[in-house]
Amino acid sequence: MRLGGIDGALIIDFMKDKPAHATIKGGVTAPAGFLATSIYCGIKASNPSREDIALIFSESPAVAAGTFTTNMVKAAPVLASIANLRAPGTRAIIVNSGNANACTGPVGLAAAQRMCLATAAALGLKEREILVCSTGRIGVQLPIEKMEASIAQLPARLGKQSRAAAKAIMTSDSFPKETAVEVEIGGKPVRIGGIAKGAGMIDPNMATMLSFVTTDAAIGKADLAKALRASVGQSFNRITVDGDMSTNDTVLALANGRAGNPVLKFGSADFAIFQSALDQVTAALARMIVKDGEGVSRFVDLHVTGARTDAEARLAARAVANSILVKCSWYGGDPNWGRIIDAVGYSGARICEERVRISYNGLPAVIDGMAAATPAARLQAVARKKEFTVTVDLGTGNGTHRIWTTDLTTKYVDFNMGE
Amino acid sequence: MRLGGIDGALIIDFMKDKPAHATIKGGVTAPAGFLATSIYCGIKASNPSREDIALIFSESPAVAAGTFTTNMVKAAPVLASIANLRAPGTRAIIVNSGNANACTGPVGLAAAQRMCLATAAALGLKEREILVCSTGRIGVQLPIEKMEASIAQLPARLGKQSRAAAKAIMTSDSFPKETAVEVEIGGKPVRIGGIAKGAGMIDPNMATMLSFVTTDAAIGKADLAKALRASVGQSFNRITVDGDMSTNDTVLALANGRAGNPVLKFGSADFAIFQSALDQVTAALARMIVKDGEGVSRFVDLHVTGARTDAEARLAARAVANSILVKCSWYGGDPNWGRIIDAVGYSGARICEERVRISYNGLPAVIDGMAAATPAARLQAVARKKEFTVTVDLGTGNGTHRIWTTDLTTKYVDFNMGE
Q1: Is B124 part of a structural domain of the chain?
Q2: What global pTM score does this model have?
Q3: Which residues of chain B lie closer than 8 angstroms to A324, CB-CB?
Q4: In chain B, is it the N or the C terminus that has fewer CB atoms within a 10 Å radius of its CB?
């Protein structure tokens, strides 16, 4: 996937394995003034028992920011949320699973707006204070009347129910994804929480990544947008399961200022603390999404170094991470460096073959473009682990890129072969 | 794969299903003055009984042309052949399977040159009159002494043995690939023959496509190069099994003039006849390669139309053809248009969502960006065939691109998961 925004120029390496900030419970309802809930509407015929609508609500007006799919085909709720984000204050996010409301034309766009209207009516708010997301089957109109009836029941159910909301947005996910952290800013405890759903395939029509982040930090709308874009660039835009990017991918953030900290200003030391905490939340959620990729058996932390530029490092990393052949070899626990060097060779990144180095968990597989002396059995022992690091140095400069990816398994193919 | 050269501006649609010219037997030895043979050397430990060196020989000097992988990592034989192609006359092509001689450094380059030298010595020729190819495992040095001994025995075995040569260059291919056609040019019968090996995975280290074309046409070196590049642009550069491009991909053509036709000149009517015959040979071989992709169960003829430019049509076609999700749905016989529109949406091609049309064997699946009225069962009946056509119209212009591709099967993943 690749959401709009920047691929971060952050110095802080929040992808480090040990979280820097205290994690707390509560997900999106950990920050003060945020409530959530969910309900069963029956959108998805094939899984009638699971709740399929979630609501995230701020008890006071929040500033909001969003990053959206860069796919030219944008689902109706993406268009509706982009429009409503222009309003100064946001109060709620309404989400359904089971139907993506994508490729549904004007009728679909009206349905997305009706989801906002129904939510606003139920909460006594304005339509523009609501953001909306959908995930699930593509090309099918929403059962909007039924949904309006369900949405009307949501306000009475609101509580600290982040986990229920995280479950209601799941499609092919095998577990709900939530996290939260607390940091001190200007002497005040500030909380950031998030939930997400996975990038695997859905229903079986659509791969969509959704994530919702809440915080009680006091921050301006423009600065929240900056922080979110940087954070997404280093987390959700650094993961790939199958290389596809959906019509619905969305990350939304709400900040309601209830923590009472001095308003965060971009470039300040306090902002950096906030950024690192936000980064920790998005990185944790991104990692959960990769680990929950359909049929995935290995998690690979791929570092490309020594590229001419960061952009070329990204090209190389994406070519390796999305190579069907590389992914198949990882599935087999085969540290097949030939397929890796082949992928960087066609990636579009400049390489110096005579200086290329590839290693598995630091063990050299390739030195100066040729097989290293490491015994095959030692490399295999790494590639057979559930999680390992692959480093590829292109030998042409100082550009780097890091990406989290997976193997490609027969289970994935079976899962995604449709009816 | 994508070889150097142009993506054709040819008007002749040689990809049509019915061959325009008479096909004949004999493969690369169908044209006058060409001989071939093969021998068992024992390069590939895992399959010791199969012949693994092939020789193609012209009884008189031929002009030669080649197109090579655009991968930045180029195998030693690619570098050696590029160098030797600069010589005016070529007499032979020496090829081994079981070892790609890629990522083998200066020792590997010397080994590729020694293959040429040994062949030249055996035939009483100069090293520069020999072209060389390798396919198989990457990163392992060739057993060159053993190979030199085998090469020395080749001249005595030469005959009209195109099929033996086609077998000796096989790796994971399940059948040898050869074809030949005869056309009349200037009152003379002119023959073009070819052999190829597949783009599936190998040994299990490397995907390589090799093809060798011979003709007894009289044609200048520069014009042969033009004809070959155009032909490759419309055949081998239009196929994709897994989206990967190897370090060794090579197409070589030799023309020895024995047909006695008036020398072909680019732009003439005779040249057009020759081009169409050459196109028929390369298209037939390309089609065989796709059909022989590992574990492939469906062959898909993908047409992208209505793009802003041909280049954008190519982007869209490649995104669809290489989408893991699209390929999985084809495997399941699922005419999943949501994944197709998603892939064109992120391909980089400009699209007009409200005008996008997708059809399976002409049955509309999407009209104006939304589901068409065709019953799902009828679309499924198409997607369950072994071979079908998918057409995607982007609704933004007149650019087109056609590509041949396959599904992605659990068998493919099993095959490529390594040891």
Answers
A1: yes
A2: 0.82
A3: 242-244, 324, 408, 416
A4: C
